[in-house]
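Sequence design from tokenized structure. All designs in this work follow the same two-part layout: the structure record, then the generated sequence. An example of the structure record is given first.
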């Protein structure tokens, strides 16, 4: 749409990973980010803390909040569904109806697991909350290092070499499984 090459998006994404890793790893950067986003995060935390999972509406609201986090993952999948739809459909009312049905089925398929996930994670999280809070610093550091490493690999182009190496050492069944996803 904007005439950008896919490699430019990949580089931008890698850059975002590096910046996010640095924010998580360096306390001064993390403090500044927390200051900037604290109001929004507090509102989301308060909203989700008061949602009762005992009712369908509570699950719906929790799923709506979860969708804000899930949107960056869902966007590319939705774009893929729409591009398949536009390649496959003809013109006329029949193709519009078919497209509406396909996107409706996609939405239903995406929503059902999220609602179930919202109910399950709320219950599970209540049981393991204290343990997670004790390991939060370690988990944040591990995530930050992973983001930095993979971000740098992507930005520098070294990820291609890592991929090529992994293709030579991983069992064929693993590669087949990853490709099938």
């Amino acid at each position: 749409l904007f005439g950008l090459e896919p490699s430019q998006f990949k580089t931008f994404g890698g850059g975002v990973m590096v910046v996010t890793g640095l924010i998580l790893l360096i306390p001064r950067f993390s403090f500044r980010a927390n200051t900037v986003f604290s109001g929004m995060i507090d509102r989301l935390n308060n909203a989700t803390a008061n949602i009762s999972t005992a009712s369908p509406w509570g699950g719906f609201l929790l799923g709506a909040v979860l969708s804000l986090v899930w949107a960056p993952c869902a966007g590319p999948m939705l774009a893929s569904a729409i591009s398949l739809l536009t390649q496959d459909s003809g013109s006329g009312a029949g193709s519009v109806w078919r497209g509406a049905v396909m996107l409706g089925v996609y939405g239903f398929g995406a929503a059902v697991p999220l609602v179930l996930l919202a109910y399950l994670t709320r219950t599970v999280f209540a049981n393991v909350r204290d343990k997670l809070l004790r390991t939060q610093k370690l988990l944040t550091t591990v995530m930050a290092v992973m983001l930095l490493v993979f971000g740098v690999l992507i930005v520098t182009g070294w990820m291609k070499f890592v991929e090529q190496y992994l293709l030579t050492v991983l069992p064929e069944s693993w590669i087949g499984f990853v490709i099938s996803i």
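The chain has a mean pLDDT of 78. We note this feature because it recurs in several other targets discussed in the main text.
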